[in-house]
Specification:
202 residues; alpha+beta; five-stranded antiparallel beta sheet; 3 helices; globular
């Protein structure tokens, strides 16, 4: 009887839980990709990535495909920096078909509060111009691959003094994600919705 009650409760609440998850996903995507830049149902146009080392995805991830009038417009990819100060830093990156980043957001991290956690705009004290916002508008064609890092290492991105490791990790994984998106753009857009791409990368 208890099992039946639990099963009934799960079935009754599952649609609400699913709707809540989709709302959270859409809010995150809206932060990195302007809603007016595409016209397809983005949450339905998603493919699964297998374990993909260039993106730091040991357990795989997802890529959402934005389209406008049926034509490819942008990719929103999950990725992870594995070299953060306190370990893994999960991010999402939106990349246009021309290689221009429209936004980046950190979705998980364990960086030191008050020091390296400024990579997360909700923790950044600079609300007017959060550190993470500097990636928006940067194009793969304008910045050489080796310069997708902090200025201290010869790159183009700012960092906070005394908290370089977190910024370096995020800057480099953003660069690798954009490189991956450009190298595999056609395969990522052509994969069937809901399918899992094969191999370590498409």
């Amino acid at each position: 009887v208890f099992t039946a009650l639990m099963a009934s409760a799960y079935e009754a609440t599952r649609p609400k839980i699913q709707a809540s998850l989709q709302e959270a996903q859409m809010r995150l995507i809206d932060e990195v990709l302007p809603p007016g830049s595409y016209d397809n149902a983005l949450l339905d146009d998603v493919a699964n990535l297998p374990p993909t080392s260039p993106l730091g995805l040991d357990d795989g991830g997802r890529v959402w495909r934005a389209r406008r009038a049926g034509a490819p417009a942008a990719l929103v990819l999950e990725a992870a920096a594995t070299d953060g100060y306190a370990g893994r830093i999960g991010i999402v990156v939106a990349v246009g078909t021309d290689g221009t980043v429209s936004g980046v957001r950190v979705v998980s991290h364990k960086e030191t509060p008050g020091l390296g956690d400024y990579i997360d705009p909700t923790k950044d004290r600079n609300k007017a111009s959060p550190w993470i916002s500097q990636f928006a508008g940067v194009s793969w064609s304008q910045v050489a691959a080796e310069r997708w890092t902090v200025k201290k290492d010869g790159g183009v991105f700012d960092f906070h003094t005394g908290a370089t490791i977190s910024a370096r990790a995020v800057s480099r994984i953003v660069g690798r994600t954009v490189a991956f998106a450009m190298a595999n753009r056609d395969a990522l857009f052509s994969a069937a919705a809901g399918s899992t791409l094969q191999g370590n990368q498409p």
